Amino acid sequence: MTTRTTMLLSLLGLALLLPDRVHADAAPSPQPISIYLDGQQLQPETQPLNISGTVLVPMRGLFEAQGAELSWDNASKTVTAVKGGTALTYTLGSSTALLNGKTAQLAVPGQLSQGYSMIPLRFVSEALGSQVTWEPASGSVLISSASAYETSVTWGVNLRSTPDAGSSTTSLGLLPAGSKVHVIREVDALWLEVRTADHVRGYVSSKPKFTDYRSPSLLQKQGEALIASGKKYLNTPYEFGASPDQTDTFDCSSFVKRVFGDTLGIELPRVSYDQAQEGRKVGVGELRTGDLLFFTARGLDIGHVAIYAGNNRILHTYSKEQGVHMEDFSSKWKQRFVTARRIL
């Protein structure tokens, strides 16, 4: 976990004017609220305050999470935040603030509560150039920083109304290669919720072909999706030289090719030796779910391939007796191990 993420988790504050007013004064929010900053879900350290429909949370994390530098005058309870060409000065308890020298109105004044300086999220975020969206259905607040459009479309992809490629979903348009989008959240291993530069929200495939978006959490989800897909073929018979165009039988490399193609749209070469040239080399000590492991077999330097399944387990096929199966990455396999390649 990065220092920035730790700071966000421990300090991030939330303040959002909800569409339905809740009549409570300085009361903790009755329902948990999910917070996303540029697609990353965060958890504030302390419960928000709900004041007549406006929710407030700690101030420092809110500024720092969005890249502002702070100075605090404890005597006057005044904070000055600077980000780029924006300067915001606010005195706790006041209903106004100075934004680049001009007076700006707050919906609800900030206040001190249980040792935390609380301030409205929407006011602070928008002052710093971010966008704030409230999703009543999921109880989520989405904060998008000013530099949010960080993900590039690398292959033309449909923007869809739901995270589904079936006929029940509506295409909101084709995003051409080179388009910029902001990833609001990772729906699952296969879908991203995004916002386009012209503020249209929808869903795009997270398969590696379509965008350059990568994150540790998405890569882990995609590795697990590969294993789940491969396990659907457990006990499928082994056949050396099996055709990759069918799934009644597999050999080691046709199995790997099928799993990567069907799950993530990644087209690998047909034979294990060529597959070992794909991706990048990784060491045994840094294996991640979904990595490919290559071994000597049949007198060949590389004659067998398996998918690393995590927890020192591998998923592969090589014998008519077992077919597709899981087993330990044991000493017998480590003695024959040649290299590991990371495709994702």
TrEMBL record:
Record key words, sorted: Hydrolase, Protease, Signal, Thiol protease
A molecular function (GO) term: hydrolase activity
Domain SH3b: from-to ranges: 145-213
Domain NlpC/P60: 220-344
Signal peptide bounds: 1-24
Residues passing through the membrane, by range: none
Matches recorded under InterPro entries: Cu_amine_oxidase-like_N, Mao_N_sf, NLP_P60_dom, Papain-like_cys_pep_sf, Peptidase_C40, SH3-like_bac-type
Domain of life: Bacteria
A UniProt-annotated Pfam family: SH3_3
Presence of keyword Transferase: no
Family in the record: Belongs to the peptidase C40 family.
Name of protein: Cell wall-associated NlpC family hydrolase
Organism: Paenibacillus silagei
